Amino acid sequence: MLSYAYRRAAVLPFLALAALAACAPGGSTRESQGSVDRVFTPQQYTVEDFYRNTRFFGGSWAPDRQKLLVSSNLSGIWNAYSVPVGGGDPQPLTQSTGNSIFAQSYFPGDERIIYTSDQGGNELTHVYVRDPDGTTKDLTPGAKLKASFQGWAGDDKSFFISTNERDARFFDLYEIAIDGYARTLLYKNTEGFEIGPVSRDKRHIALMRPRTTSDADIFVHDRTTNTTKNITEHTGTVNNSPSDFSPDGTQLVFDGAVKQGAGSAIVIATMALDGSGFEVVAGPFTVDPTTTNGLNYSETNPMWI
């Protein structure tokens, strides 16, 4: 996901250049109004100007709600920063000069942070914890594995990571305790699913199985019964993607995208975990191919955000 966000950010300067070029009326720099000729001279930018652009993304609240954890290339390479919500300069939390670092989350009860980073651009990301004193720990050591942060447990006493250390073809899901970082296997992935959200009670795991780049089904794995069910069986081409379980664990919120011209039409829907009770709660929205979506249930109100 991060690599996708990075690629998207990297093309923005070139999209901006195209937009500047499009501003020239009729493809010409000269326009006539009555007897007055005006010459339009566009602002010139070098490639170096674009590479000096500073980008930020992400946003995880600190426990005191006074700052946000973000990723930025402010130093010339991606690092983790805290940004005061009341204003002020971003404060670097990591100071890498070689490997890009992407911030994931503050710990809910203290100012430890979780971040991911690879080695020399090899895309074999590991998951790290940084303590407030600056010391770091690789939670996923190994030479040929890839790991990702998968979010927090409902009680905030543990978090989830996925890693392909067991089998390079598949990503398994693990739970990591915040005290001592003990690891527990939650889901052994032997069928090539993509890992989605986990219910608050950790009983259910949402999984996704792409058929093509624009067609996918959502499965729900029940850890109590050890069963896995496709809850979005369909005909045609629909790119279903799970987002979150309801706080009571009875429903899943997800989005479904159908190609429409150069873009997509997306609906946001909820469904019971047995595949019944399908309900569109918003949409359809027409979006371009680079639009990303994030959906979560509110913890205190019967709504999603």
Specify the CATH homologous superfamily of the largest domain: TolB, C-terminal domain
- Structural class given helices, strands, pairing? mainly beta
- Strands of the largest sheet, in order across it? 3-4-5-6
What is the number of helical segments per DSSP (H or I, 4+ residues)? 2
**Please, what is the average pLDDT?**
84
- Strand fraction equals over 45%
CATH top level of the largest domain is: Mainly Beta
Strand count: 22
CATH architecture of the largest domain, please? 6 Propeller
Q: In CATH terms, what is the fold-level topology of the largest domain?
A: Neuraminidase
What distance lies between the first and last C-alpha atoms, to the nearest angstrom?
20 Å
Explain this structure to me?
With 305 residues, this protein is mainly beta. It folds into three domains: 1-43, no CATH class; 59-192, TolB, C-terminal domain (Neuraminidase, 6 Propeller), CATH 2.120.10.30; 204-305, TolB, C-terminal domain (Neuraminidase, 6 Propeller). Helices cover 9% and strands 45% of the residues. It has a four-stranded antiparallel sheet with strand order 3-4-5-6, with no helix packed on it. A four-stranded antiparallel sheet has the order 7-8-9-10, with no helix packed on it. It has a four-stranded antiparallel sheet with strand order 11-12-13-14, with no helix packed on it. Strand 20 and strand 21 (263-272) form a beta hairpin. It is globular, with a radius of gyration of 23 Å.
